Amino acid sequence: MRLDRFLALHLVDLSRSRLKVLIEAGRVRVSDATISEPSFRVKSGSRISVFLPEPEPAVPEGQSIPLSIVFEDDDLIVIDKPAGMVVHPAPGSPDNTLVNALIAHCGASLSGIGGVRRPGIVHRIDKDTSGLLVAAKNDTAHRGLAAQFEKHTMTRAYLAVVYGRLSPMSGEIEGNIGRDPRNRKKMTVLHHGGKPALTRYKVERTFLDAASLVECRLATGRTHQIRVHLSSRGHPVVGDATYARSRRRRLTDVPEPVRQALAGFPRQALHAALLGFKHPRTGEAAEFESPLPDDMKALIDLLNQHASRHR
After folding, report:
1. Sign of dihedral through CA atoms 261, 264, 266, 268?
2. pLDDT digits (tens, 9 = 90+) for 120-145
């Protein structure tokens, strides 16, 4: 019998979907081995242990965390999120998130907008991606922004430093994205199943054959879309611990300072640089830009220096 089904029959206080989440999070052991596949087949005589996490508050609490506010009015707030900040509470990141900061900053107006656990959040960017994100401050704004997100009418442009030199220099990457059947913590391009995804890219600059600065515009908004699409073309984002491990090991024929800078970059070199939408109340077009953060700027400056010496 499948592990998730077996547990659901014996742990009646937990739903099968909840048990599936616990299994995928590595919180179930079968005969002293951690199992992360809900479809794992249970054998007679196995000893199964389920480790439940400590209960979390039902509603996130406000925390005084500094925010880089790009724009704010009575309806919405645009934040320039630093790398390292989680957007909303989740297992492993129960607090010190953007949501906790927004609750403290916006007060009661944010309560319940878009869901208790992630009030005001219309879209998110990964923890280690920096850049622009908009949150709603009331129901009207949330509905209006969410509709634009669903219809893919928001303008979202990202800047990424990737390994290698893309060819052609501009184009589209299309491919359905879904869970990697061999590693449920990763996403991948699937030939069958998944959700349609389209990324438009343009190479802004190349640095020898080692790396490129690429602008990516999202036509859809799938989990890890840019990271997965670029990796599928053999040009993963520099510093991406999930999708660029093999490329990091193959760095050869580049100056040692460049090799060290690329291999040692501490997070994915991905920045949400531009965000545009129609204001949900006034209908006026709004567009915001965010400059590259210091860590990406320093990486690009170093790559430029060495590329200039080889011209």
Report:
1. positive
2. 899 989 999 999 999 999 888 999 99
Q: How many helices (H) and strands (E) does the chain have?
A: 8, 14
As for how many domains the chain has, the answer is: 3
Domain that holds residue 27: 3-50
pLDDT digits (tens, 9 = 90+) for 225-248: 999 999 999 999 999 999 987 665
Kindly report the CATH number assigned to the domain that includes residue 114. Answer: 3.30.2350.10
Is 230 in a helix, a strand, or coil? helix
Q: Any idea which residues carry the catalytic annotation?
A: 126
Structure pTM? 0.80
Of the candidates 116, 151, 186, which is a domain's last residue?
151
From edge to edge, which strands make up the β-sheet containing 33-34? 33-34, 28-30, 48-50
Whether 136 maps to a domain, the answer reads yes
Element at 307 (helix H, strand E): helix 294-309
Q: Which of 274, 276, 278, 287 is nearest to 144 (CA)?
A: 278
